[in-house]
Amino acid sequence: MDSRAQYRRMCKGITLAIPYAANIGGTATVTGTGPNLVLINQIDSLYGSEANVSFGTWMMVAFPCMIICLFICWLWLQFLFLDSFKFWKKTIAQTDEQKERARSVIRNQYSDLGPMSFAEKAVLVHFVILIALWLTRDPKFVNGWSVIFEEGFVTDSTTVIAVCMVLFCFPSQPLGFMCRPVKHDEPKTREEKREHKISKTIPTLLSWRAVEQKMAWGVIFLLGGGAAMAEACKASGLSSWLGEALAVFGNLSPGIMALLISFIVAAFTEITSNTATATIFLPIFAELAVGLGVNPLYIMIPSTLACSYAFMLPVATPPNAIAFSHGTLTVMDMASTGLMLNILCVLVANFTINTFGVWIFDVKTFPAWAADDMTTIAPTSAAINCSEYIKDLYNVGTTVM
Questions:
Q1: pLDDT digits (tens, 9 = 90+) for 148-161
Q2: Element (H, E) at 322
Q3: Is 175 helix (H, G, I), strand (E, B) or coil?
Q4: Assuming Cys at both sites, which of 10, 51, 187, 263 could form a disulfide with 47, CB separation 3.0 to 4.6 Å?
Q5: pLDDT tens-place string over residues 346-392
Q6: What is the separation, in whole angstroms, between the first and last Cα of the chain?
């Protein structure tokens, strides 16, 4: 293979690595991607805080899954595009030259960034504080700082609002004596005085104008719409009807059922937005799981992770579309590479829920907080006749009305 063709293959591999890493890496935290936020919103609206899905507990389950999937993605891209396993085709001179060239590019890009400003350092400190508060609120193995307050009074959202309020007040420039701004060199020319005019007030790290212009308001409306749609499906009986239509899964073991549902979601999210897919399917899966006597988290968590495992088409996720827009890739490049990643990552997600999920969330046990959401409690056997249960539930609801 000539050097030009090898260069094109390497460009394709690196271009694919960026969106794939973005899709996989976002699954590790609640705030990393849209489907995770939809899941938390649905769980809070359906079951409340008793489901015990927080930033820390989610990370305990999803972070190991993310690491394994990233490693698999790295191996797969190395095998397909970079010939890293064909070590006999390399020469030491070529390898050293390429490494030095790559280091030079990275050093130049890093030097162009310049030193961190006071505002950047302040934002970084606030971000670290936010992560620490998230992780220590209720780590489960020890008492977190939330025990200071009444149960259910403090959530992950509380810490976000608190840090945001501080950002609206914290100065973006260092303060001197009597909280006055530190003065820099006085401007000499008229142009410098015009450009460097000293302001009487110091801007804060965050302003409402910046929030108004750069806040992703569409995500908020999408999450609110998802909660409203879930409540509408439940009140109208649509969730029960869909649960009856999916009663065929009642003859399967919970593990096989979760695996098949994850593959269905992974295929569906290739042609639709991953956040919209989670918004549509998660209320249905919650109803189905409770109807079958299965812990809802046992189905909802792997299906939520599967919403982010969209590697085959450019329209699947925004990172895929951005990478495809550069013109280096073709649809066949993404489809042929992403198919195997879809399969492997879904398998890893289901492996994780059967290992770490059992340890953190006890997903093999039907919880009381899920039973309280239903009028009649389903047996814990996965082989329950779901259609008869849903019909009885619907008749009870009709009688009450």
A1: 888 778 887 888 89
A2: helix 318-324
A3: strand
A4: 51
A5: 999 999 999 999 998 888 888 888 776 553 333 333 333 434 433 44
A6: 73
Is residue 340 pLDDT above 60, yes or no?
Answer: yes
- Count the Cβ atoms, other than its own, within 10 Å of residue 304: 30
Nearest to 44 by CA among 133, 141, 157, 144: 157
Cα angle 146, 149, 153; round to 5: 85
Contact 386, 250 (CB under 8 A): yes
Give me the residues paired with residue 181 across strands.
175
Q: Taking the CA of residue 199 as centre, how many other CA atoms within 13 Å lie in the half-sphere pointing to its CB?
A: 7
pLDDT of residue 313: 87
Tell me how far apart the alpha carbons of residues 313 and 242 are, in angstroms, rounded to a whole number. 28
DSSP code, position 377: P
Find, among 298, 279, 356, 252, the residue nearest to 36 by Cα: 279
Percent of the chain with pLDDT over 90: 24
Burial of 315 from C-beta contacts in 10 A (0-12 / 13-18 / 19+): middle
CA–CA separation, 385 vs 293, rounded Å?
10
In the Cβ-directed half-sphere of 39, how many Cα atoms lie within 13 Å?
Answer: 30
Residue 14, CA distances (Å) to 82, 130, 338, 346, 347 in order: 9, 32, 14, 23, 24
CA 195, CA 190: separation in Å to the nearest integer? 9
More confident residue, 304 or 109: 304
Give me the DSSP letters along 324-350: HTTSS--HHHHHHHHHHHHHHHHHHHH
- What is the tens place of the pLDDT at every residue in 253-300? 889 999 999 999 999 888 878 888 888 888 888 888 888 888 999 999
Q: Cite the DSSP H helix spans in 92-195.
A: 92-113, 118-136, 156-167, 190-195
159 touches 137 (CB < 8 A): yes
Instruction: Give the distance from CA 368 to its chain's centroid.
Output: 27
Q: Give CA separation, 59 vs 65, 111, 144, 172, 307, in Å.
A: 9, 34, 16, 31, 17
Which residue in the block uniquely carries the two structure tokens 């293959």?
Answer: 9
What confidence score (pLDDT) does residue 354 get? 94
Cβ–Cβ contacts within 10 Å for residue 356, how many? Answer: 18
What pLDDT is stored for residue 182 in this prediction? 57
